[in-house]
């Protein structure tokens, strides 16, 4: 399925950080949605700020408008505040994009676990993301760093415990 | 011999009569007024008879409705004037426009987030029709205009700005004066406007032009495009045609503020 661009994407002013505060809020909210949707569609988990500038998301060649580096940073900061982004380096040149927040992934995984009556069972991380049983589930194929964060979120809620096993990590659900 | 019209008394009377006629100018003689009232009453009852006979037509057919309204207007009858009374009870015309008004408000609220409270009559019409579904009564742009006028009269912050042969409907009481309106009309052609265009077309000073554009930005009716070739462009979401064909996303619906 091809990616559906929101109306703002073809609206030239969308690529200029708006001077009016209220309008800017709406604009940034729309940018956050768009960035997350795009990453989700293309299963992107990391973004490089420099590379992003040339990505179709922030650079609409058809209308000859692009978001400046400063503006991209502003959008990323918004995403970070919302819990959808983590910087990988101090210079803020690369980031992790969580188009689904760890808590949300955790919830999905836990739902699957309880649906199949697997509470109190132990899983290896691999089983969760690459096992045959999880084939077709949204979290199938989830990258390990994201999975760990999700399980950590569940852990904080008391719904899981990450355990160390011989050949890696595992998790027990409560 | 008794001579009429002569004498101080008669002259005074004549002067008084003249004065009275002058004072009242075109006022008709009393009996003529009585005549006309009777005629209007007859006309009214004919119209009422007509209305009850053609009640279905008036309800269903928007073209018919326009003509009916115009007939009413010629004798100074406004079917929408009051919630009670013959017209609204007989025809449910009042209800029809009341409900339409509610629909209009709903559409405008839902889109205010995008266009700042300004929408073209075309887009409003499209969306109202969509919201009504296939089997509902037909609604024309004339119907919308009447309903909006009613809303305006009720003090709902509605207004209509004539633009490019149609209207922009304003649903938020943003303060728009003549200067703003004129700039909106200028922007209608391309969906955006620049300072130079305002200066060239309206012969205004730069400061006045910028002042108006700043106000439109402040009211959330316009967005700034700083990457346009030459000079900044001020775009109106309300006039962005691609926007009007897009459905409201669930996220936008969540961000709706009353």
Give a short synopsis of this structure.
The complex is a heterodimer of chains A (174) and B (258). With 174 residues, chain A is α+β, with helices and mostly antiparallel strands.
Assign a percent range to the helix content of chain A.
40-55%
Q: Could you give a short account of the major beta sheet of chain B?
A: 3 strands, antiparallel
| Strand segment count of chain A | 8
Q: Are there runs of chain A of 5+ residues with pLDDT below 50, and where? A: none
Q: Please give the count of helices of chain B.
A: 13
Q: State which percent range the strand residues of chain A make up.
A: 15-25%
Identify the CATH class of the largest domain in chain A.
Mainly Alpha
Backbone CA Rg of chain A = 19 Å
Structural class of chain B, please? Answer: mainly alpha
Report the β-strand fraction of chain B as a percent range.
5-15%
State the shape of chain B.
flat
Structural class by SSE content of chain A = alpha+beta
Shape of chain A: elongated
Helix content of chain B: 55-70%
The H/E string of chain B reads HHHHHHEHHEEHEHHEEHH
Low-confidence stretches of chain B: none
Continuous helix count of chain A: 6
CATH architecture classification of the largest domain in chain A: Orthogonal Bundle
Specify the CATH homologous superfamily of the largest domain in chain A: "Winged helix" DNA-binding domain. Chain C. Domain 1
Q: Report strand order across the widest sheet of chain A.
A: 1-5-4
Structural features, described:
The complex is a heterodimer of chains A (174) and B (258). Chain A is α+β, with helices and mostly antiparallel strands and 174 residues long. Chain A has two domains: 91 residues, Arc Repressor Mutant, subunit A (Orthogonal Bundle); 72 residues, Orthogonal Bundle (Arc Repressor Mutant, subunit A). Chain A has six helices and eight strands; from the N terminus they run αβαββαββαβααββ. In chain A, a hairpin with a 6-residue loop joins strand 4 and strand 5. In chain A, helix 4 packs across helix 6. Chain B has 13 helices and six strands. Chain B is 60% helix and 8% strand. Chain B starts with 7 loop residues before the first helix and ends with a helix. Chains A and B meet through helix 1 and strand 3 of A and strand 5 of B. Chain B: Keywords: Coiled coil, Cytoplasm, Protein transport, Transport.
């Amino acid at each position: 399925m091809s990616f559906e661009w929101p109306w703002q994407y073809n609206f030239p002013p969308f690529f200029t950080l708006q001077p009016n505060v209220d309008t800017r809020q709406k604009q940034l909210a729309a940018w956050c949605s768009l960035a997350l949707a795009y990453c989700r569609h293309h299963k992107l988990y990391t973004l490089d700020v420099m590379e992003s500038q040339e990505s179709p998301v922030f650079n609409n060649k058809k209308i000859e408008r692009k978001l400046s580096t400063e503006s991209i940073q502003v959008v990323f900061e918004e995403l970070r505040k919302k819990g959808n982004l983590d910087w990988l380096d101090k210079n803020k040149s690369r980031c992790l994009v969580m188009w689904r927040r760890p808590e949300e992934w955790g919830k999905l995984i836990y739902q699957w676990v309880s649906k199949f009556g697997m509470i109190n069972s132990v899983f290896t991380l691999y089983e969760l993301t690459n096992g045959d049983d999880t084939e077709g589930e949204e979290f199938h194929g989830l990258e390990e760093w994201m999975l760990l964060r999700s399980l950590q979120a569940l852990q904080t809620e008391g719904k899981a415990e990450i355990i160390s096993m011989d050949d890696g990590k595992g998790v027990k659900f409560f | 011999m008794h001579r009429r019209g002569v004498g101080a008394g008669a002259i005074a009377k004549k002067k008084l009569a003249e004065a009275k006629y002058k004072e009242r100018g075109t006022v008709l003689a009393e009996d003529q007024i009585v005549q006309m009232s009777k005629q209007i009453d007859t006309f009214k009852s004919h119209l009422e008879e007509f209305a009850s006979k053609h009640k279905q037509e008036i309800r269903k057919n928007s073209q018919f409705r326009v003509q009916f309204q115009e007939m009413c207007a010629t004798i100074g009858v406004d079917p929408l004037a009051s919630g009670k009374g013959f017209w609204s009870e007989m025809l449910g015309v009042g209800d029809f426009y009341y409900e339409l008004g509610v629909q209009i408000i709903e559409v405008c609220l839902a889109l205010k987030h995008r266009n700042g409270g300004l929408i073209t009559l075309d887009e409003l019409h499209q969306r109202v029709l969509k919201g009504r579904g296939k089997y509902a009564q037909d609604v024309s742009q004339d119907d919308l205009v009447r309903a909006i006028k009613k809303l305006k009269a009720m003090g709902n912050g509605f207004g209509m700005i004539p633009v490019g042969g149609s209207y922009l409907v304003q649903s938020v009481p943003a303060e728009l004066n003549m200067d703003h309106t004129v700039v909106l009309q200028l922007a209608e052609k391309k969906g955006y406007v620049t300072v130079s265009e305002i200066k060239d077309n309206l012969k205004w000073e730069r400061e006045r032009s910028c002042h108006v554009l700043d106000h439109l930005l402040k009211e959330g009716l316009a967005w700034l495009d700083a990457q346009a070739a030459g000079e900044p462009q001020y775009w109106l979401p309300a006039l962005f045609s691609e926007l009007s064909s897009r459905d409201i996303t669930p996220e936008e619906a969540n961000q709706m503020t009353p």
